[in-house]
User: Which sequence fits this backbone?
């Protein structure tokens, strides 16, 4: 049997998924020989939301997002720094957080939405950023958004 639950508020998605798994576990013996169940929680970011975010970011920040998407959800600082050391990533955390907050104030996405990229630091604890990571489910969403915003930019450049 397949059950689909749609239009769940973003802030309740994980809680509802956990509740479904717990409910099924109470009624299905653990020794059951089937494949078990799977619960799919979709990304908070949709291609439309991601496109809105990209349109609100400066070109340098879009470059960071592009590198992370092209790296299948990861880009290290050396990649972001580039050959001439321009430092695409400098100030990126603040820029991205501000754009996400603006979108929430405009009602483009829920106020509790997660920032789509997170910095990772060196394990030695010196707080230097190693790179940026994006959840795998968000990579495809942002890849589509990058394509749509690039094609829209190309169309507006032709005029």
Assistant:
């Amino acid at each position: 049997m397949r059950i689909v639950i749609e239009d769940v508020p973003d802030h309740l998605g994980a809680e509802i998924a956990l509740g479904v798994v717990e409910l099924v576990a109470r009624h299905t013996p653990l020794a059951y020989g089937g494949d078990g169940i799977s619960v799919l929680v979709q990304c908070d970011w949709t291609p439309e939301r991601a496109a809105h975010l990209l349109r609100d970011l400066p070109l340098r920040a879009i470059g960071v997002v592009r590198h992370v998407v092209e790296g299948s959800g990861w880009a290290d600082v050396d990649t972001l720094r580039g050959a001439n050391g321009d430092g695409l990533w400098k100030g990126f955390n603040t820029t991205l957080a501000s754009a996400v907050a603006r979108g929430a104030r405009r009602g483009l996405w829920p106020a509790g939405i997660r920032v789509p990229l997170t910095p990772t630091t060196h394990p030695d604890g010196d707080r230097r950023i190693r790179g940026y990571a994006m959840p795998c489910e968000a990579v495809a969403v942002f890849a589509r958004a990058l394509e749509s915003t690039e094609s829209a930019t190309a169309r507006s450049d032709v005029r």
Q: What stands out?
A: The first strand starts at residue 74 and ends at 76. The radius of gyration is 19 Å.
